[in-house]
Design brief:
Elements: E1 4-11, H1 17-30, E2 36-43, E3 49-51, H2 54-59, E4 70-72, E5 81-83, E6 95-98, H3 109-116, H4 126-133, H5 135-144, E7 152-156, H6 165-172, E8 176-179, E9 190-192, H7 195-206, E10 211-216, E11 221-229, E12 234-243, H8 253-258, E13 263-266, H9 273-289, E14 294-302, E15 308-314, H10 324-331, H11 336-362
Parallel strand pairs: 1-2, 1-6
Antiparallel strand pairs: 2-3, 4-5, 7-10, 8-9, 8-10, 11-12, 11-14, 12-13, 14-15
Length: about 375
């Protein structure tokens, strides 16, 4: 049985560049080498793509320049990716595993490029990726589908002079959260309790995006549910994120990745079976509403009176040592290695289904 060649895409020019590398290392280590041949491709912060070795992947903290820059050639079967210096193809590509977090990675742009290249890929497609990363648009669709989520206001950068503390407080109360809607890993998010904090948070969020959302604070436990599948997705057991350092009053970037004692995960979460089932049902409904496929992690709040409020959907969740997505599936009976294989197989299945539709259209 021949192996499938998999390009592992990581890095990128987003604020989550280093996190992406950590995820890629774990994915490469967990790949079933009897079924898949993993080919690392690092995307530098300036956007240049480089063919990498597993040794480079394991030793670089950022994607560094090397002597193997590559270019893409749409249309050819076995010459899609060419070494610019040698003009040689890296061979036939069967699947891509993009683990480029944030901008130009999980926002639909990379997914669109891979579709143009006719390369099957892990995770949601163009529409699902674009919908989920834009929390403003995602929340509007969830409202249409009657999926509970936090009240919010949305502003473009050109509307900066229309944003007032008084208007936000009247609509949302205090505290509130201000965030760029198109980034992950809690980048650019601020918790606001005063007018001074409000003005600073607005300016800070606009450093990362042309649009911001101001969101009502939800008092509740932070619960996460992993979803896996295409047309018939399954939900994992649910887990809880608990911030344990008094320096963190919400699950910030620092609590996630910098402070080793910033947070902990509890799997399964200490919730009643009925409540866990409700969360799984809402997670699946949200997954389908936002056109996801392959995988996603659905994050919710559970309020003191046991109401479930969807926070966000992460279409390319982290695969670092502390990431919740693989931990949730491990607790649900799918270990890390099996999970990676399932995701790659789902990518092939989704591509086959789409190609079948194209064939029918062309008859």
């Amino acid at each position: 049985m021949s192996k499938n060649n998999v390009i592992l895409l990581y890095g990128g020019n987003s604020t989550e560049h280093e996190i992406s590398i950590r995820s890629a290392r774990n994915i490469a280590k967990a790949t079933n080498t009897s079924l898949f041949n993993m080919i690392p491709i690092g995307i530098a912060k300036n956007g240049t793509w480089y063919l990498k070795t597993l040794e480079e992947l394991n030793n670089e903290e950022i994607v560094l320049r090397n002597d193997n820059p590559i270019t893409l050639v749409p249309g050819y079967d076995e010459q899609k990716i060419i070494n610019i210096k040698t003009q040689e193809s890296i061979g036939k590509i069967d699947i891509a595993f993009p683990i480029v977090h944030g901008t130009n990675g999980e926002d639909g742009t990379l997914q669109g490029l891979l579709k143009t290249m006719q390369i099957p890929f892990v995770g949601p497609g163009v529409i699902g990726s674009a919908l989920c990363i834009d929390k403003d648009v995602a929340k509007r669709l969830m409202n249409e589908a009657h999926i509970p989520n936090a009240a919010f206001l949305s502003y473009q950068k050109s509307e900066r002079n229309q944003i007032t503390f008084e208007k936000a407080v009247n609509s949302l109360g205090l505290p509130m959260y201000i965030k760029p809607p198109n980034l992950g890993s809690s980048v650019g998010i601020s918790k606001v309790n005063s007018k001074r904090e409000f003005d600073n948070a607005i300016d800070h969020a606009f450093l990362f995006d042309q649009k911001i959302i101001i969101e009502k604070n939800i008092k509740g436990r932070e619960i996460e549910c992993a979803v896996l599948g295409n047309t018939n997705p399954k939900a994992s057991l649910v887990g809880e994120v608990v911030t344990i350092n008094e320096n963190h009053d919400f699950y910030s970037y620092e609590a996630k990745y910098i402070d080793a004692n910033g947070s902990k995960t509890v799997i399964p979460a200490d919730l009643s079976e009925d409540l866990q089932n409700q969360i799984q049902t809402i997670a699946l409904k949200t997954y389908k509403t936002l056109c996801c496929q392959g995988m996603a992690r659905v994050d919710v709040f559970v309020t003191p009176d046991n109401k479930i409020i969807v926070n966000e959907v992460n279409t390319l969740p982290g695969f670092t040592d502390i990431s919740m997505y693989p931990k949730l599936w491990e607790a649900s009976g799918i270990d890390y290695n099996e999970l990676i294989s399932k995701l790659l197989i789902l990518a092939l299945e989704q591509s086959d289904n789409e190609n079948e539709n194209l064939t029918q259209m062309n008859l």
